[in-house]
Amino acid sequence: MNYPIWETLRIGGPTLIALIAVLHVFVAHMAVGGGLFLWLTDIKGYREQNPAIHGYLKRYLRFFLLLTMVFGAVTGVGIWFIIALVSPAATAILIHNFVFGWATEWVFFLGEIVALLIYYYHFDTLSRKFRLRISFFYFLFAWLSLFVITGIIDFMLTPGSWLQTRDFWDGFFNPSFWPSLFFRSFMAFSLAGLFGCLTTVFLEDRHLRQTLLCYCTKWLLFPLVGLVPAALWYMRDLPLGTRAAFAMNRAMPAFLDTLLVMTLVIFVLGIVLSVMKARSLQKAAAFLLVPVGIFWIGSFEYSRENARRPFLIVDYLYSNAIPVSQVKKLDREGILTHARWTAVRKISPENRLLAGNEIFRLECLSCHTVRGIRNDIVPLVENYTYRGLITQITGQGKLLPYMPPFVGTRVEKEALAAYITTDILGRKAEEKPFEPVGWEPGHDMVPVKIPPFDPQKDEYVLLAWNDLGMHCTSDCDEAFSFLPPANTLEAQLVKRGDPPEILTQGIEITYQVEAGHRNPASQVPFWEFSKSVYGMRLEKNTGLAGMGLGGVFKLLESQTVFQAKWIPVVPYRDNGKAFNPYPTFTVQALRKDTGEILQTTRVTAPVSTETDCYRCHGGGPRKLGAGISEKTAKNILAIHDRIQGTTLLKDALAGRPRLCQSCHGDPALGAKGADGVLNLSAAMHGWHASYMSGMGNEACMYCHPISYSGVTRCLRGVHGGGEKRTVCSDCHGTLDDMAGSLLKGEADKPRAKFLMGPLPQKLLEAVKARVPWLQEPECLACHKNFEKPASNPSAVSHWNTVPGELFRMKSDEAGAMRCIACHGSTHAIYPAKNPFDTWRDAIAPMQYQKNPYAIGANRSCFVCHTEAVEDSVHHANMYREVRIKGEF
Question: Where is 589: in which H helix or E strand?
Answer without folding.
Answer: strand 584-591
